[in-house]
Design brief:
The complex is a heterodimer of chains A (370) and B (303). The longest helix of chain A has 18 residues. Chain A is built from eight helices and 21 strands. Chain A has 370 residues and is an alpha+beta fold. Chain A is elongated and about 80 Å long. Chain A folds into two domains: 230 residues, 3-Layer(aba) Sandwich (Rossmann fold); 122 residues, OB fold (Dihydrolipoamide Acetyltransferase, E2P), CATH 2.40.50.140. Chain B has a single domain, classed as MetI-like (MetI-like fold, Orthogonal Bundle), CATH 1.10.3720. Chain B is globular, with a radius of gyration of 26 Å. The chains are: A alpha+beta (370), B mainly alpha (303). At the A-B interface, strand 6 and helix 2 of A face helix 8 of B. Chain A: It is a peripheral membrane protein.
């Protein structure tokens, strides 16, 4: 059992508030990812869980017990750092064993545990080396080994993969995921990489300016973003935002979407399904959020979804899909189409808009309209 | 017709000048260095093999000056003093400097001011340090008389006039001067240590003392080495501090080899003997510096 519960945590460095009244619960065995741009307070929050930084205000409970004043070493927590933070003067073996050594575990037992961890991480052949003789990926594994060897209740990861190259990062991501499934330990993982967050997390907490913007499963975060920041942060390429007018035509509420066809502006009427809650906003402006895959080629779908025809300015082939850059209400937007049906740049093609999956945001508060 | 040709020639002169400019600029200092440092080392080496007295002669006689030197009590005292002074000076300067650096590294208030205070002695010349400490340690002026006036009648601190202890007085003054510098060296190195390492060690359950002695200080090995080399050569060439502080006394109990050399070469008309002692000092410095340079250069080639 290992749960983390943070209530009303706040913290400031000088006059800048890095954490503003954060409350967060992590369930036993859960993999929670704290996602956000640099400076959003996610690493500070992690350090507070570890006990490496004091909180100005608030309580933190591990397994229901308040640990505000408990020393990091007594919290039964292990942490993997972005810089790996290996002890430069010790061999890999001592690096991994150091935590056990400090906990007065006998030499023989230490040796056996280190061997076991080293074999799961496939670093047995490195045990007698010094950190300076290792590559980035190997250091990363040693840092993981140092965390694993103590069998802590809670694992904390502070951007552990951001110093690795893309290929290694992918491999280590899979291994961390595998590790989580075998250990079933509670893990909190800090990253600025939304792909890491989406692939690893049971739940994601998106932070900005010391506040949690939204917390939910990767799918919830992706398809029902709470506000425009979350919508724009998660997903690559990011969601298209178009400012539109809400109007009623033939008893159906919909959005007026200005597009461009053969160089001429054309207004399309997009009927919005399930629009009961939007009645009050008739004849006002809202922000329509369309993920690129919502705007797709008409040829590959056979739905009754509304279609628009418009000019394609550029193409960005990504292999599996091709991104068409079109112009919606004067701003470039990306549509994700099959490479088979993408028209050459400069010509026009028909797109289907899956309005069921579109998001709507309030233009002033930037919050999702629900 | 001749004009362009002339111009071409001029250009080539300029080109050549440009090509050889670095050599031209570096050559005079290089020659001066070779002559005044290495030339005079060689000259001293030759003189040490003659029986020069007031004026140098050049009839090489062999190693008799060295034999004389090693038989002299004055030289042996000076050399023993160097061993005592050098080892204590290096040991205490590094220990105190290191402890000060660790304490200052705790993100304390007014760190900048404190750092300057500790570093300041280094800016004072050895003559001033020596004179000041001579007054402080003088039994009838300094600490001893002060403590006695306070009422501690039996207080004694007369090392500076004590034959057996005078060299330790030199150690005290020299350590006072150098430990701030060592502290600055260590402090700058401590600041480069990755803070995450300290955090990781905290999580691993290590105490702060353990973190410093088990992880951080061992990783500062290169700094220890540079501090050692700097202090070692400072201690071997120490001269003015002794002159100002004890003037080698009482008797010759606190002389160092540099003072011996000066005494012989410039006051007692024993240039040959002075040169021999200078060569002995050179050998001592070389014994420390050469392995250091060797290991440094080797590391660079491998790295």
């Amino acid at each position: 059992m290992a749960t983390i519960s943070i209530e009303h945590a706040s913290k400031s460095f000088g006059s800048t508030k890095v954490l503003k009244d954060i409350s967060l619960d992590v369930k036993d065995g859960e993999f929670l990812v704290l996602l956000g741009a640099s400076g959003c307070g996610k690493s500070t929050l992690l350090n507070i869980i570890a006990g490496l930084e004091p909180m100005a205000d608030g309580t933190i409970r591990l397994d229901g017990e308040v640990v505000n004043d408990v020393h990091p070493k007594n919290r039964d927590i292990a942490m993997v750092f972005q810089s790996y933070a290996l002890y430069p003067n010790m061999t890999v073996e001592r690096n991994i064993a150091f935590g056990l050594e400090m906990r007065k575990i006998s030499k023989a037992e230490r040796k056996a545990t280190v061997r076991e961890v080293a074999s799961t991480l496939q670093i047995e052949h490195l045990l007698s080396r010094k950190p300076s003789q290792l590559s980035g990926g190997q250091r990363q594994r040693v840092a993981m080994g140092r965390a694993l060897v103590r069998r802590p209740k809670i694992f904390l990861f502070d951007e552990p993969l951001s110093n690795l190259d893309a290929k290694l990062r992918g491999e280590m991501r899979t291994e961390i995921k595998k590790l989580h499934q075998t250990l079933k330990a509670t893990m909190v993982y800090v990253t600025h990489d939304q792909i890491e967050a989406m692939t690893l997390a049971d739940r994601i907490a998106i932070m900005k300016d010391g506040e949690i913007q939204q917390i939910g499963t990767p799918q919830e975060i992706y398809s029902k973003p709470a506000n425009m920041y979350v919508a724009g942060f998660v997903g690559a390429p990011p969601m298209n935002f178009v400012e539109v007018d809400l109007v009623k035509r033939e008893e159906q509420l919909g959005a007026i979407l200005p597009a461009v066809l053969k160089g001429e502006p054309v207004d399309h009427f997009l009927p919005l399904p399930n629009s009961k809650h939007l009645e009050a906003r008739e004849n006002t402006k809202v922000i329509l959020g369309l993920r690129p895959e919502i705007i797709t080629d008409s040829t590959s779908t056979h739905s009754s979804a509304p279609e628009i025809e418009c000019d394609v300015e550029f193409l960005e082939p990504t292999g599996a899909d091709t991104l068409c850059i079109i112009r919606l209400n004067g701003h470039p937007a990306k549509a994700r189409v099959s490479p088979l049906f993408a028209c050459p740049p400069g010509e026009s093609m028909r797109f289907t808009l899956d309005t069921h999956r579109a998001c709507l945001f309030d233009p002033t508060t930037e919050q999702a309209i629900t | 017709m001749s004009h362009p040709q002339q111009r071409k020639q001029q250009m080539s002169v300029l080109d050549r000048l440009q090509r050889y400019l670095p050599q031209l600029v570096v050559a005079p200092p290089f020659l001066l260095l070779v002559f005044f440092v290495y030339g005079f080392i060689a000259w001293t080496g030759i003189i040490s093999l003659t029986n020069s007295r007031m004026l140098p002669t050049f009839d090489v006689q062999g190693i008799q000056q060295y034999v004389r030197l090693l038989a002299m009590d004055r030289w042996n005292v000076a050399f023993d003093n160097l061993l005592i002074f050098g080892s204590l000076y290096i040991l205490f300067s590094i220990t105190i400097g290191c402890v000060l650096a660790v304490l200052l590294d705790q993100r304390i208030r007014a760190e900048g001011a404190l750092r300057t205070i500790y570093l300041y002695p280094m800016a004072i010349s050895f003559i001033v340090t020596g004179t000041a400490w001579k007054w402080i340690l003088n039994p009838s002026l300094g600490i001893e008389s002060y403590m006695q006036k306070l009422g501690w009648e039996s207080f004694q601190f007369d090392w500076i006039v004590n034959r057996d202890m005078a060299i330790y007085v030199v150690v005290i003054a020299a350590v006072w001067q150098a430990s701030g510098f060592v502290m600055a060296l260590f402090l700058s190195a401590l600041r480069t240590v990755d803070e995450d390492i300290i955090r990781a060690a905290h999580l691993d359950g290590a105490s702060t003392t353990r973190i410093y002695f088990g992880i951080i200080l061992p990783s500062l090995r290169p700094v220890f080495l540079s501090a050692f080399v700097i202090l070692a050569h400072l201690s071997i060439k120490s001269f003015d501090l002794v002159v100002a502080l004890t003037n080698g006394g009482p008797g010759y109990s606190s002389t160092l080899p540099a003072n011996f050399m000066y005494e012989m070469a410039f006051r007692r008309n024993q240039i040959g003997l002075g040169a021999a002692s200078a060569m002995m000092m050179l050998a001592t410095v070389a014994a420390i510096i050469v392995p250091y340079l060797y290991s440094e250069l080797r590391a660079k080639r491998h790295g």
